[in-house]
Amino acid sequence: MRKSRPRLLVLGTIAAVVGCAAATTNVRPPLEARLGAGSKTGAPVPLRFDPTAKVVITRYANLAPAPYTAAQAARGEQVYNSTCGACHQSEKFVGKEFVDNWGDRRIGDFYQLVRQTMPVDNPGSLKDQQYLDVTAYILKANHATATTDSLSADTTIMRGRKIGVHP
């Protein structure tokens, strides 16, 4: 029986390595925030960033796109320009890079990430409606179709709808 213990240890180690390797195949780095020379806050300031942080991507192509209204997106654009635009360059949230990173993911995943981590100097400081409006603006900026229903924090919508965008 002593001979089988090393074999089990080796098999267990191999299983752990394969499991870890498989778990990292759908991992991307989190969103970035960098101040540039043209930022509304002034000269570039280095932000603390955890280079080991990862966001696991799960795609839900079979879900219906998240709803939002044109008025909601317009309010969101104002909040984005006055709050988010100071740190985030639009190319991270508008266009191919955003679509590649966030397309077909649940809208609730993006909303929760933004709500819990932004603005970087005071996370969670905006009103819930402002976070919803900014999310709606990001959808509009990436050519998602506006609807007559607004985006809400309802868990059925957040978990059951996807980011249906394209470049």
Overview of the molecule:
- With 167 residues, the chain is mostly helical.
- It is 43% helix and 5% strand.
- The chain has a single domain (28-162), classed as Cytochrome Bc1 Complex, Chain D, domain 2 (Orthogonal Bundle), CATH 1.10.760.
- It has a two-stranded antiparallel sheet with strand order 1-2. A two-stranded parallel sheet has the order 3-4.
- It is globular, with a radius of gyration of 20 Å.
SSE inventory with pairings:
Elements: H1 4-23, E1 27-28, E2 55-56, E3 64-65, H2 70-82, H3 96-102, H4 107-117, H5 128-141, H6 155-160, E4 161-162
Parallel strand pairs: 3-4
Antiparallel strand pairs: 1-2
Helix pairs in contact: 2-5, 4-5
Tell me the distance between the termini: 61 Å
- So what's the overall shape? globular
What do we call the CATH topology? Cytochrome Bc1 Complex, Chain D, domain 2
Mean pLDDT: 80
As a whole number of angstroms, the C-alpha radius of gyration is 20 Å
User: Percent of residues in helical segments?
Assistant: 40-55%
Q: Which CATH first-tier class would you pick?
A: Mainly Alpha
Strand content: under 5%
The helix-and-strand class reads mainly alpha
How are the strands of the largest sheet arranged?
1-2
The biggest beta sheet is recorded as: 2 strands, antiparallel
Named CATH architecture: Orthogonal Bundle
**N-to-C series of helices and strands:** HEEEHHHHHE
Flag low-confidence runs: 20-25
